[in-house]
Specification:
single chain; about 200 residues; alpha/beta; 10 strands; globular
Length: about 200
């Protein structure tokens, strides 16, 4: 089984190639807002390094959020494009789980969502204890489930990907045209629109 996997939900862009649950090769790019220009190129680099073509890939697994609005849109768009044009199976997974799947024990996976909020979830040896959510960090810290968990703020120094767990927890997309990113919060434009509509 040859699997291409990628996540672009944070400042860390991860593109990996796994074979039979073993991570064979991966590429990391650290940036703030311009991953969109580089994702396809990084996918191409990883495939070429391993003498592969897209036709050789059995599955594509993508992190669909929560996280960066632009990042997860790009991941979904590229995933849908590959699935449609190459007729490859597409699977999705929480970005929070994707980027912390290699950690053992009880893990609180967090992505900074600004203004005191975090995108967060809690996992225990790969099983979900607290579902993905958009939460005030101050409130999350008071949650009993959080108190004995290892906190992982996902960034360029704090991520660990386990292809086997990513594959096991990902879900097949039955209709790629219906696939949308897992935003969890409104965009600033939507919030502004709602505020104007209520005045």
């Amino acid at each position: 089984m040859k699997i291409l996997m990628f996540d672009v939900s944070t400042n860390v862009m991860f593109v990996g190639y796994a074979k039979d649950d073993i991570l064979v090769d991966f590429s990391i790019r650290i940036a703030i807002r311009d991953h969109a220009k580089y994702l396809v190129d990084r996918v191409d680099q990883v495939l070429k390094r391993n003498k592969l073509k897209l036709d050789d890939i059995d599955e594509v697994i993508i992190g669909v959020g929560p996280g960066s609005y632009t990042g997860i849109r790009i991941a979904v768009m590229v995933g849908k494009m590959l699935a449609y044009t190459k007729q490859v199976k597409l699977k999705t997974i929480s970005s929070l789980y994707f980027m912390t799947s290699g950690h053992e024990g009880k893990v609180a996976a967090l992505i900074d969502a600004r203004r005191g909020h975090v995108f967060s979830a809690i996992y225990h040896n790969g099983q979900t204890v607290l579902e993905d959510g958009y939460r005030l960090f101050s409130e999350l810290k008071e949650n009993p489930l959080y108190k004995d968990a290892q906190t992982i703020f996902i960034d360029d120094r704090n991520y660990e990907v386990c292809p086997k767990r990513v594959r096991e927890h990902s879900k097949y997309v039955t209709n790629i045209h219906d696939l949308i990113p897992h935003y969890l919060r409104k965009t600033e434009a939507e919030t502004s629109h709602d505020q104007k509509s209520n005045t």
